[in-house]
């Protein structure tokens, strides 16, 4: 027995389905809407039974990320695993009825072909391939020719759109400046390939602002010696004035150093007692000597601040920065910095001249302060003009550095592959709009239109040829006819034979109302004489006859996909009876169903004699990306009518079960409508709105059964006044109505009381 479908991956809509938690039983009923995966699951069972990997490989999930994989858990620890396009342990005990069985063994295209008749003996033992009939073959041939033309044109185009799908290539818009963009991208590509070299290039450096020692200079110029002995000062000055020689004071000061030996350096006479010598010693003291040294150092300070070398150094730095900026011009559009060397030199010379004049004045008057605050401020303003020239140049250099840095940062983020792809896409866009390519695309459009027409004709023929022809050997004939009679079929199989014309094949015919039905051609023929339900019934009869004649049925798992497709009520009932009988005699019955009501009735049929634990009900549901997965199902809830569903929703709400307030509010009115229709069957038109139903009851004559409900019409109107606001037929803004739980609960209780008690 198949105990669990552990997993199915990469097959049809079962892209990653997990059924481990859903145990299968002797009777396993699997519900699924059409297009959710029933046929895929049946095909998996068939593939496992016949060890036919191709039937799974052909159903590989389109655009899926999973490789086809299946794990089926059978009894006694046996597993069948499909991986790497192979089954490790096929399970031939599976007998499968599905669309593939019908097409391969019963009928195809409205006719029984020669190849199908050849497979009759094999059909008695298993399933065989189906061939399409002549009309379908003709349509298929035309479609193939149209497809081949499309393929040829597509192959011609394949050389033009490498790396892109044809549709992506078609969607490429024309780029007017493609060549210019390609050239620009190629330049970027070259630059990107040389990022290391470019990043290693130096950045321009700013000019170093010179230092102006104006405070130190003016400190010296304005320094005086107020503590010199005034008498000595007068004596010395009188002596100096007497001689009237320029720079005599400095000469005497320098000579005073040599008078420390108490004798004259000229005549070696003693100096003691000479008043003038004592005055010199008082006048030319230590502070004086320090002042003289500071004044002597003025020339150095002025030279440091105003030397022509400063202008030359700044000019050299500017030239270096300009050269570096020029070297970046091939990559970045930069504006060269400005440096007014001549103006700076003039300003520097002017400052130097003014300072030299101050120095000379100080040297001539060592003891007196020299240089006013105004003179100092003028020099500071002149120096600020000089620094402004340097700053203007540095601002230009800063701007260049910022642009270069931004460019270098952009280079670091460049992706060579992205640039190459962009170039390739532009080249493809150019190719897409070349005249020779446009011509081929135009031819392809015509070929695609023709192919679509041929494919449509092919599909039409294939659907029209929905006749199923199958043969069985003589030993199956009686059982098949019994089944056909049980189904109420108007046709039978009078005989089955075989011959060797063109190889071993069967020979049989159908009979309806005493007339033979031709399998291929003739009048009347199989294609037009049997309805779709008849054809499906014939196929199901062939399968059941084969299953029931199997001597080892007790050890077989019978899997049936959609057994009642195209069947009327009588045949559905017969199908349930047959499936119940198969269930009783096989090891396990698995039925894939799209009709939930049929599923419930089949379950109930089986449960008449089986224990509930021997029946499993599962469903396939749609999950993310419109794939499918296994899930539990409450069959009774799925089958309940709108009235019972609304009654259940209201009851669960009153019992405290979590419900959507809007769903509860919208369930009040249909629950009451259902109640009234069931209380007065046939007396209330189903097309009336609820308010009209209440009016109809109010206007009913006293002899009408409806008069018995006139005692609750006032209550019904009040409840409808509340519930109607949640329905779009009476309130277009129903979705915006705010629901108050206390009010909702009150009206739900009133509605339930009407149903239970029949009174307001």
Strand order of the largest sheet: 7-11-12-3-13-14
Percent helix:
55-70%
Strand content: 5-15%
The pLDDT mean sits at 82
Q: In this structure, how is the largest beta sheet organized?
A: 6 strands, mixed
Low-confidence stretches: 124-133, 465-472
- Structural class, please? alpha/beta
Compute the number of helices. Answer: 30
Distance between the termini: 57 Å
> Would you count the extended β strands for me?
14
What is the approximate shape?
Answer: elongated
Radius of gyration: 55 Å
Describe this structure in words.
It is built from 30 helices and 14 strands. The radius of gyration is 55 Å and the shape is elongated.
In short:
With 760 residues, the chain is of the alpha/beta class. 55% of the residues lie in helices and 11% in strands. The strands form 3 sheets. Strands 7-11-12-3-13-14 form a 6-stranded mixed sheet, sandwiched between helices. It has a 5-stranded antiparallel sheet with strand order 2-1-4-5-6. A 3-stranded antiparallel sheet has the order 8-9-10.
Secondary-structure map with pairings?
Elements (H helix, E strand, L loop, with lengths): L1 E10 L2 E6 L7 E5 L6 H13 L2 H5 L11 E6 L4 E5 L2 E2 L6 E4 L1 H7 L8 H5 L1 H6 L8 H25 L7 H5 L7 H16 L1 H6 L13 H8 L8 H14 L4 H9 L18 H9 L2 H21 L1 H21 L12 H24 L8 H41 L2 H17 L2 H30 L9 H13 L4 E9 L5 E8 L2 E3 L8 H4 L2 H17 L8 E5 L7 H17 L2 E6 L2 H12 L7 E8 L5 E5 L2 H5 L2 H13 L6 H19 L10 H9 L14 H11 L17 H17 L3
Parallel strand pairs: 3-12, 3-13, 7-11, 11-12
Antiparallel strand pairs: 1-2, 1-4, 4-5, 5-6, 8-9, 9-10, 13-14
């Amino acid at each position: 027995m198949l105990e669990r479908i552990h997993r199915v991956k990469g097959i049809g809509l079962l892209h990653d389905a997990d059924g481990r938690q859903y145990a299968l039983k002797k009777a396993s009923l699997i519900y699924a809407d059409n297009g959710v995966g029933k046929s895929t699951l049946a095909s998996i069972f068939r593939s496992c039974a016949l060890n036919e990997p191709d039937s799974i490989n052909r159903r590989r999930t389109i655009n899926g990320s999973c490789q086809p994989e299946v794990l089926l858990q059978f009894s006694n620890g046996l597993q069948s695993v499909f991986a790497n396009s192979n089954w490790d342990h096929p399970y031939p005990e599976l007998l499968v009825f599905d669309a593939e069985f019908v097409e391969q063994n019963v009928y195809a295209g409205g006719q029984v072909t020669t190849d199908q008749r050849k497979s009759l003996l094999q059909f008695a033992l298993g399933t065989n391939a189906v061939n399409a009939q002549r009309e379908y073959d003709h349509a298929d041939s035309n479609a193939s020719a149209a497809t081949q033309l499309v393929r040829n044109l597509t192959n011609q185009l394949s050389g033009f759109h490498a790396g892109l799908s044809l549709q992506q290539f078609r969607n490429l818009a024309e780029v007017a400046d493609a060549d210019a963009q390609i050239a620009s991208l190629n330049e970027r590509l070259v630059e990107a390939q040389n990022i290391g070299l470019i990043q290693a290039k130096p950045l321009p450096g700013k000019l170093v602002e010179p230092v102006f020692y104006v405070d130190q200079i003016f400190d010296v110029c304005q320094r005086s010696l107020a503590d010199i002995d005034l008498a000595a000062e007068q004596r010395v000055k009188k002596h100096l004035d007497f001689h009237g020689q320029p720079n005599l004071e400095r000469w005497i000061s320098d000579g005073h150093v040599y008078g420390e030996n108490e004798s004259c350096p000229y005549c070696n006479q003693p100096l003691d007692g000479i008043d003038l010598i004592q005055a010199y010693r008082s006048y030319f003291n230590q502070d004086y000597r320090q002042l003289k040294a500071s004044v002597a150092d003025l020339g150095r300070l002025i030279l440091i601040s105003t030397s022509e070398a400063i202008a030359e150094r700044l000019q050299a730095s500017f030239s270096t920065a300009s050269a570096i900026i020029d070297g970046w011009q091939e990559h970045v559009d930069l504006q060269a910095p400005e440096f007014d060397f001549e103006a700076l030199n003039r300003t520097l010379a002017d400052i130097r001249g003014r300072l030299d004049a101050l120095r000379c004045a100080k040297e001539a008057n060592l003891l007196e302060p020299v240089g006013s605050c105004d003179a100092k401020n003028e020099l500071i303003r002149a120096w600020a003009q000089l620094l402004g020239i340097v700053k203007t140049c540095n601002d230009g250099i800063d701007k260049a550095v910022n642009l270069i840095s931004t460019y270098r940062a952009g280079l670091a983020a460049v992706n060579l592959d992205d640039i190459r792809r962009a170039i390739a896409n532009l080249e493809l866009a150019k190719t897409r709009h070349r005249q020779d390519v446009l011509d081929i695309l135009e031819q392809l459009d015509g070929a695609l239109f023709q192919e679509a027409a041929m494919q449509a004709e092919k599909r039409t023929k294939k659907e029209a040829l929905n006749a199923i022809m199958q043969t069985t050997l003589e030993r199956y004939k009686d059982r098949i006819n019994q089944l056909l009679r049980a189904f109420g079929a108007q046709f039978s199989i009078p005989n089955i034979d075989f011959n060797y014309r063109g190889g071993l094949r069967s020979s049989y015919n159908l009979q309806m109302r005493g007339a033979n039905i031709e399998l291929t051609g003739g009048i009347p023929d199989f294609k037009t004489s049997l309805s779709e339900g008849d054809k499906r019934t014939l196929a199901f009869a062939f399968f059941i006859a084969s299953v029931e004649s199997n001597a080892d049925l007790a050890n077989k798992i019978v899997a049936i996909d959609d057994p009642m497709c195209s069947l009327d009520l009588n045949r559905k009932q017969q199908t349930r009876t047959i499936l119940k009988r198969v269930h009783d005699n096989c090891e396990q019955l698995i039925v894939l169903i799209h009709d939930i009501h049929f599923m419930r009735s089949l379950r109930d049929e089986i449960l008449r004699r089986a224990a509930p634990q021997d029946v499993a009900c599962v469903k396939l549901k749609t999950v993310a990306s419109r794939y499918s997965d296994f899930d539990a199902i409450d069959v009774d809830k799925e089958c309940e009518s709108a009235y019972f569903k609304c009654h259940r929703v209201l009851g669960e709400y009153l019992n405290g079960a979590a419900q959507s307030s809007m769903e509860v509010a919208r369930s009040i009115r249909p629950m009451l409508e259902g109640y009234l229709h069931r209380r007065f069957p046939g007396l209330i038109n189903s097309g009336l709105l609820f308010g009209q139903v209440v009016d109809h009851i109010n206007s009913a004559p006293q002899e009408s059964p409806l008069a018995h409900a006139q005692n609750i019409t006032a209550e019904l109107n009040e409840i409808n006044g509340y519930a109607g606001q949640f329905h779009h037929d009476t309130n277009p803004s129903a979705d915006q109505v705010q629901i108050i739980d206390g009010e909702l609960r009150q009206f739900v209780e009133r509605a339930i009381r009407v149903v239970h008690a029949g009174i307001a």
